[in-house]
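re: the backbone from monday

yeah here it is again, tokenized this time
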């Protein structure tokens, strides 16, 4: 695998270049970076390499179409969700066609492999965390995402958002507290 000659360009810079020029070349570079991630996501859900490869192509096409219509701020997490939703829809379609066949193809259950339980639990918690993040107010969600998911500093977040340093700290602190409350509520009701 050869080195990416564009590795010095951040995802955000590539997105900005695309949005200003509408040149799919920038999206191509961006999507290329996440081919393996997408393949991994698709394999996780579909358990079939050929289907997973087809899905990656379909997700690429969907991403290109959607990015021409909408402005996306957090590309990697957005792309992950597009891929996951695409796979889940594919599984749902399969299930409506032949439920018995799907049950036979389903993944190993925790009863079959007790080592799988912690991974399934972590997946469930991550999905709940994503849902809870969506429930935060816009400013808290933006600051928490930039700080924890994109590993930005307080100063960088202040530059990106236009908030003061005190506002950034407050949004992160309150967002983190609210996330914890929302997550505990979801965990207690599941």
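seq for it, each position gets an aa:
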């Amino acid at each position: 695998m050869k080195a990416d000659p564009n590795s010095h360009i951040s995802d955000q810079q590539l997105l900005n270049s695309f949005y200003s020029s509408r040149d799919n070349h920038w999206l191509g570079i961006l999507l290329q970076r996440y081919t393996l991630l997408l393949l991994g996501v698709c394999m996780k859900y579909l358990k079939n390499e050929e289907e997973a490869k087809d899905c990656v192509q379909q997700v690429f096409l969907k991403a290109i179409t959607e990015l021409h219509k909408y402005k996306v701020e957090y590309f990697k997490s957005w792309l992950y969700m597009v891929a996951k939703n695409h796979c889940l829809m594919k599984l749902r379609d399969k299930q409506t066609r032949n439920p018995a066949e799907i049950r036979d193809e389903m993944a190993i259950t925790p009863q079959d492999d007790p080592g799988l339980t912690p991974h399934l639990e972590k997946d469930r918690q991550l999905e709940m965390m994503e849902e809870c993040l969506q429930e935060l107010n816009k400013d808290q969600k933006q600051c928490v995402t930039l700080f924890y998911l994109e590993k930005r500093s307080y100063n960088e977040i202040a530059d990106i958002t236009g908030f003061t340093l005190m506002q950034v700290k407050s949004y992160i602190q309150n967002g983190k507290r609210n996330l914890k409350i929302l997550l505990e509520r979801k965990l207690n009701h599941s």
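Residues 101-110 have pLDDT under 50 and may be disordered. Residues 165-189 form the longest helix (25 residues).
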